[in-house]
Amino acid sequence: MTAYTFKDKHVLVTGAGGGMGSAVAKDLSETAARLVLTDRHPWVIEELIESLPGPSKTHLVPADLSVPGEVARLAREAVSAAGHIDLVFNIAGVGYFALMEEATEEHTRQIFEINTFSPLFLIKALLPHMKQRGGGRFVNIVSCAGRVPIPSVGVYGGSKSALAVMTNTMRLECQPMGIEIINIYPGTVDTAFEENALREGDRGGFCEPRQQCGEPRFDIARQVLKAAAGPPGEVWLERAGKWLSLSAIAMPSYVEKKLRPVRDRVISKDHKKKQRTWDLIQLESAISCNLKCLMCPWKDISRQAENRGIMEQPVWDSIRPHLEEIVSIDFTGGGEPLLQPNLADWISEAHQAGCETGILTNGTLLTESRAGAILDAGVNWVCFSIDGATAEVYEKIRVGAGFDKVCTNVAQFCRMRRGKNVKTMINFVMMTANFHQLSAIVNLAAELGVDQVNFKQCDVIRGEHGKGLGLFATEETKQIRQMEKELKKAKHLAKKLGLTTTDFPFTPVEQPVCEQNPTKSMFIRYDGTAAPCINLAYGGPTTFLGKEVTMPQVHYGRLPDDGLAGLWETDNCLFYRQVFEERIKIYDNQFTEAFIGGGSGSYHLQKAAEEAMPKAPEGCRVCHYLYNI
User: Fold this and answer.
1) Which among 198, 215, 446, 601 is least buried, having the fewest CB atoms inside 10 angstroms?
2) What is the pLDDT of residue 448?
């Protein structure tokens, strides 16, 4: 800790032994920042003049801020050495890289002691001194990690969030006393922060060893000095950090989606392993189905499918060498995956390679033995298609299924998975025939022991199958507002019962890319044909927002002949990847510029981002998935 004297003005900088604290301290020393008192703001850095001599006096006060009570001594000695303190830079801080489940009590307490309690209690210790003098100023370095749930940075972010909230409160409370507080969000700075951070095991940070990461520390130090001269409040030096922080409040699901790649990278125990090529391979293990559901778009295709619509072993064999390059495998397509005789074996092999695995099933074939087999194989999630909360409604939609049998199978599976990390969900496709059962399906899910309910739209239509069953429309109507109200009630009930929910809008909002995201995923049809998604794999006549159109077929090639890596480099695949990478980049940049620049309302920001993007490929422009319905 260093106390500087400029004529009769005294500045205390914590953390002056390294990182950005030393940069601010050195900048004060090298450029001799001249502090002057004005009527408008107590402290203004009038200018930074390189040619002026350094501070007239420097006092070093060693202190270990991880030790409770040290700040009280630091405050006393600083005041004693300098005579008085007018301005404090609370810069001392330590990073911590650990998943929340890994974070130890010892390290968590140490991080909060240094990052939260020390600056807080240093302010409290100096408040009586400054009140007596009639004013003063505190400048705290906080972080957008305190606003954004960044995987492996939770404890550090929590320590900065707590400091920001408490010192923002203190700013309001201390304002009448003439004491001002500024919280500065500097963004990523090129310091020894990551090198000196605490971590669990070999948990890495965000920068490669010896790699420059962030803005040069002396550039940021000068910006901190400039901000320290401004009005009290919060100051953001990095636009991207401000954007993420604002979005974390306004659009939490969007931010979580953006952070998934970070999560997927840091949760791996082997941090030196290269990033996996594919986030998702959707593998249609079977297009055949044992039911004839009211809205199924694939009925005609499954009847005509070769090999009874069951994926053959050679297709899987061509994927097996690439399992360690795949984050997640969904073994579901247009049919019932439990008709695949090799399902448990394939799940087991994928699980052993570190892939997340799951299936969407109608549940009718999930006997005790089959449930045990896929649980033992290491399945991570199972979703059940249940579109009615009573036998009367359910059996009219899921033709050929028995409501009581399905409920028995689901409840049995939920009991059997206890002690295993397996998530269970219900997909409820909302239609006129079942919309009145939104709350009832939530109650049923709770009774069966399911974790989550996904409220889906009837969004995939082929010919007459599924036509007219969707509840969405091109624009909001009185009926849609009423449906949104009912859906909100069901979601509120789910929250009370401890269930999570997902849902989609009733009116279209164009996304930069759909959830399938061809930039990081691929769909493999039951016969080995590869495509961007299931819709483009099959194509065919469809209805898009009430208009009769044709969905084109888009194929990359076919397994096992072409090989998975070869399919990824075909012209068609590269085209889809490049188009959507560009859309995502432009969308994010446009949205950030508009938001940070003071855009008026999320609707206008959304429209501005949509207009800036290049057009989506032809097939995607007539797909409800791209419009989030």
Assistant:
1) 601
2) 98
Q: What's the pLDDT score for residue 257?
A: 73
For the entire predicted model, the pTM comes to 0.68
Q: What are phi and psi of 245, to 5 degrees?
A: -65, -45
Is there a contact between 262 and 279 (Cβ–Cβ < 8 Å)?
no
How crowded is residue 462: how many other Cβ atoms within 10 Å of its Cβ? 22
**Residue entry with tokens 């974070």:** 103
Q: Which structure tokens are listed for 177?
A: 């006393």
Where do the DSSP E strands lie in 233-325?
A: 233-236, 278-283
Q: What angle, rounded to 10 degrees, do the helices at 154-174 and 118-133 form?
A: 20
pLDDT at 274 over 70: no
529: number of Cβ within 10 Å: 20
- Interacting residues of 113 by C-beta distance below 8 A, sequence separation 6+: 65, 66, 67, 68
Q: Which two tokens stand for residue 567?
A: 């399919």
Average pLDDT over residues 430-454: 97
For residue 425, give both structure tokens.
């969900």
What ranges make up the beta strands (E) of 15-90? Answer: 34-36, 44-47, 57-60, 87-90
Would you mind telling me the total number of residues written for the chain in this entry? 629
Separation of alpha carbons 583 and 615, rounded Å: 8
- Give whole-number Cα distances, 476 to 66, 347, 456, 482, 509, in Å: 56, 42, 18, 10, 12
DSSP letters, 398-409, are: STT--HHHHHHH
Angle at 470 between CA 466 and CA 473, to 5 degrees: 140
pLDDT confidence of residue 608: 73
Distance of alpha carbon 163 from alpha carbon 145, whole angstroms: 12
3 state SS for 371-393: HHHHHHHCCCEEEEECCCCCHHH
**pLDDT value of position 206:** 57
Residue with tokens 């070869």: 566
Sequence-ordered alpha helix ranges (H) in 267-320: 299-304, 313-319
325-329 mean pLDDT:
95
CA torsion, ordered 6, 9, 12, 17, to nearest 10 deg: 0
Q: Hey, how many other C-beta atoms are within 10 angstroms of the C-beta on 396?
A: 13
**CA 487 – CA 483 distance, rounded (Å):** 6
State residue 40's pLDDT score: 32
User: What pLDDT is attached to residue 37?
Assistant: 30
Tokens linked to 406: 């399905």
Residue 369 to residues 335, 366, 374, 380, Cα–Cα distance (Å): 21, 8, 9, 18
C-beta neighbour count of 627 within 10 angstroms: 23
**Domains of the chain with CATH codes:** 2-264 (3.40.50.720), 277-627 (3.20.20.70)
Chain-centroid distance of CA 626 in Å reads 19
The torsion angles phi and psi of 170, rounded to 5 degrees, stand at: -65, -35
Q: What are phi and psi of 387, to 5 degrees?
A: -105, 20
Cβ neighbors of 20 (< 8 A, separation 6 or more) are 91, 141, 186, 189, 191, 193, 217, 220, 221, 224
What pLDDT is stored for residue 236 in this prediction?
87
